[in-house]
Amino acid sequence: MNAEAPALSPQGLRLSLLGLMLTAALNAQHTAWWCLPVLAAACAWHLRLISYAGSATRAAAASPGKAARVALALLLTLGVLLSFRTLNGLEAGATLLTAMTAAKLFEARSARDWYVVLGAALFLLLAACLDRQQLWRFPLYALALWILAAALRGLNGGQAQSAQGLLGGAGRQLLLALPLGVLLFLFFPRLPGAFWALPSGEEAVSGLGDDMSPGDIARLVESDEPALRARFSGAVPAVPERYWRGPVLHDFDGHTWRRRHAPLGPLNPLHYAGEAYSYVVTVEPNSHGTIVALEMAVPPDQTVARFTDDYQLLAPSPLRQAQSYSLISYAQFQADAPLTPLARHVDLQLPKGRNPRTATLAARLRAAAPDDAGFVQEALNYLRDGGFVYTLTPQRLGRDSVDDLLFDTREGFCAHYASAFATLMRAGAVPARVVTGYLGGEWNRIGGYLLVRQSDAHAWTEVWLAGRGWVRTDPTAVVAPERITRGAELLSAGLRSEGARLLHVPWLADALLAWDALNAWWQDDIVGFNFSRQLDFAHWFGFSDRNGYRLAVGLGCGLVAWMLWLSWTLRSAPRAPRPDDLSRAWRRLEARLARAGAPRLPHEGILAYAQRLSRTHPHLADAVTPLARRFARLRYGPPSSPRRVRVFVRQARGARAARAARAARARF
Amino acid sequence: MRHAQPPVQRVRPPLRLWLTERVATWARRRQGEEVTPLVLQARRLYILPTRAGLGFALLLLVMLIAGLNYSNSLALLLTFMLTGFVLVGMYECQRTLQGLALTQVRVLDCCAGDLGWIELHLSNPGPVVRRALSAGAPGAAPALFEIAAGGTAIVRMNYPALRRGRVQIDRLELATTTPFGLFRAWTWVYLPLIATVYPRPAGRRPLPINGSRPPPRASALPGADEEQWSSLRPYQPGDSPRRIAWKIYARGGPPMVGLYEGTGGGEHWLSFVGLEALDLEVRLSQLCAWALECARRGAACSLRLPGCELPLGRSSGHRTALLRALAGYGEAPVGAEPSA
Questions:
Q1: What region does A469 belong to: left with phi over 0, alpha with psi -120 to 50, or beta?
Q2: pTM higher than the cut 0.80
Q3: In this structure, is residue A200 part of a structural domain?
Q4: What is this model's ipTM?
Q5: How far apart are CA A350 and CA A57, in angstroms?
């Protein structure tokens, strides 16, 4: 590369900077706030260099010295360390990459520098892909790829091309690459799990957590984000039965319910009964690692998920991306075996010295009931008839939160009532625990699946009844029965999304449904295309051996087909321009002469040919010579009228008869 | 007549140079002797990733590992699309050379120590523009060019003239880094190219004066008077701007250089007489300098060397014959024309 000439034309340079800014912006959600302005400043500085086009010395003089560049790099690294306390991890890595690319821009001049910058931009694009996979981002990712590809084409070492030329060439190249991309996407062997995990910072994933304070669920109810989607292969559960079990909480400190991560004993075998639901659930990323499943799931294979003793489905790795699971759930379930002493002990614990009035109430209700089941019913009756109100904006509760709720404020929502009911049960010596999850789900008729949103978040209790095992008891159902059926009511209206519901615009509601269906397809089939889905796909494709051998054969065949297709598409064989009438007429004539044994020699001009014919084949010359002269005049002379061309074509054709007749005569 | 300073040739590591030479020798055996017109076919095209291409492959590998590790479909799709993009680029790179037609090659004479010029006549019969092409000979910086779809181009490239004589130009290299410099496709063309390299004009001895007429005064030296030029030839880098036919150029014509065939010069008989003490090459250099000096003055000169005599003359053809005689002095006569 000549040191004098800039490696990248101004057009290529603008494209590079544009692509770089776009990829950096696509990472803005997880990088430090300051790195984007730094990069923008570096880009602006570089754009100024374009005005020095052709003057490398001026450009060099305007560039900061080596010491300044090293200082800048150190400063930016320090900034990343201050922002994240580490250089490891996706967020810190993406920030560092953005900052270092900005520093590189101050010295980018040679082709090598620009390859480094564009490589960094492509890596930033990868970081964005690793971080977020929403459907709406996909066109932006594709756009960034297109622009960066065009910028790469600007580095071909040849003459400068226009931005349109670069973008057009890159677009064509990407379209040609698309079949291979899809082929590799489908057939390239995936791995069942991660072989190396970057420490990832605690991401703020909306949804349920490892604990439950009353405020958490109220916040969730405002969120329209999807929590899970379920595609049923048979019956769909009725609206009041759509309880989706998530994290189970055992420990209560008076304010917050928490999970226990250690098992409380062996898994109590369950007997399932009632309707069986077979479905594929796609769980959005969450922080609690629980596969939220319809109550009550049959334990799947150990490699898929672990079924805990409190009936949670734990994913083997954190759910950082949407994952799909094929599950079976039954409407009814029952456990015969007795509760272990440890579990009984844990699920009867109450914070010491708190909620004295609740304890008194529990004792009173307990005395009135013949057995545990009767006590549960008494407590539910108390909640039903006590004038309790369901509201998402209750008053604040004090230190004795359950006392305050049951005797003073008498208003709250599911989390309050679940907490209060579980406390009441434990005070009455009935083991109880709080289950968080979702209640409801909207039927998407376009996608044919049940969509459960974060706003469907719910909390209820399970109580231990001897002989029946854990029994779901939802205090909210008695306080506010409409909460349970609300889903149905909204479903019949077909208007779920807030905006559409307010506006009563049917087509908008349809569009929102379609958009969610598209998102579901995206999550299920594209983002969620993993190791097991690939095996399913191969199976569907007819490769049933499952050892990957036929998958490799499929991949190889596809590769060869793509290469052949590419060779055909890119063939550089000259497409000779279609000869016009004049040339065609002459060629026909020549072909006939060749058949008669007087072909034109490759080096011969037309007039020379005619001259030679008049010597060697005098009987042909009479017809050919005037035609050759006329052809030469029409072809190479000044432009003539189409009529003359038509006359020539007719004459050339007519000459056949005359010549053929003569040739025939000559033969006899 | 001095050419511009030769462009700095990048120094290659010896191992790579050695390897290139070995492969080139193998390719010569494989391809055999060649003649123009020549259409570049696939079997003679070679392609390798460049250094940037290897770096890019590493980048793709890291991206693949990251995508597989996190089972991230989008990251994998990005990686696979980029892989396809690069592979399509590889095809495009090769297709940029394939089908290119080399119709004619002309080697122009030059003086030893200079960079000589080779004229390539190329045509692109394909429907797509061919970009970022380069043509070069070993030891000289390549010339960059591009050819429009269905177009033709006359490309002037350098060859190094290291020694006087009839020099065989081993091979020409046509290469491209289209579309993004990650791959380099090239072909070696082994044509029987003989360059006639004149001796390096050197020596400060005065012109021997053997003619009857006195040498011309300085004021009578040919200047930029275009009326006095006897013939024109195409401009070559290094020609004096005073001799460019600006009137023709202003009319949109090609840059031409006027050749002066003056009548004012004397007659000079050039021979080894008086130079016996010098080395042969130094003698030839002195003769070459004299011959060029005569041409500059418009003087007639003759040449008398052992086994070679040229009568007096002052035409440009005569001068060329004289210089060629100097170039070929002492070498076995070559039957082939020096241009192919």
A1: left
A2: no
A3: no
A4: 0.77
A5: 78
